[in-house]
Amino acid sequence: MVSLVIVMLTMMAIAGSVLTLRHLRRNREVDQLFLQLRIRDGLLTDESLAALPIALTVHLPPAPWSPAVVEITGCVPTPELRDVSVLSGPAVPLPQGANRWRSSPEGGLR
């Protein structure tokens, strides 16, 4: 009888842990999408950038204390528009601890 109770409690603890981890992952995905939409809306408010093929990607690491990585890729006709697109990001309010921009050799605007 005691072993049955222990097995049931163990199964309930495992099920609770799995559900908690799924909930945390889903919340992280929602936060990532929300952040991406807020930054995209901030970029689209600039008339000179609205018609350009600019792709925005946001990566949130699994650890909640790790900063977000925002990647902007696309082609712009002039270097001035490139600077406008990268500099227009700080006008968008980001959650605390999120990096504004992160440059990488393979990413960025060309």
Order of helices and strands: HHEEHE
The shape, in one word, is rod-shaped
Distance between the termini: 69 Å
Biggest sheet descriptor: 3 strands, mixed
Helix content: 40-55%
Main-sheet strand order equals: 1-2-3
Could you tell me the strand content as a percent range?
5-15%
Which ranges are low-confidence, i.e. pLDDT below 50, for 5 or more consecutive residues?
90-110
**Strand count:** 3
Whole-angstrom Rg: 21 Å
Q: What structural category characterises the helix and strand content?
A: alpha+beta
Mean model confidence by pLDDT: 76
The tally of domains stands at 1
In DSSP terms (H or I, runs of 4 or more residues), the helix count works out at: 3
What is the secondary structure topology, with strand pairs?
Blueprint: H1 2-44, H2 47-50, E1 54-59, E2 69-74, H3 79-87, E3 108-109
Parallel strand pairs: 2-3
Antiparallel strand pairs: 1-2
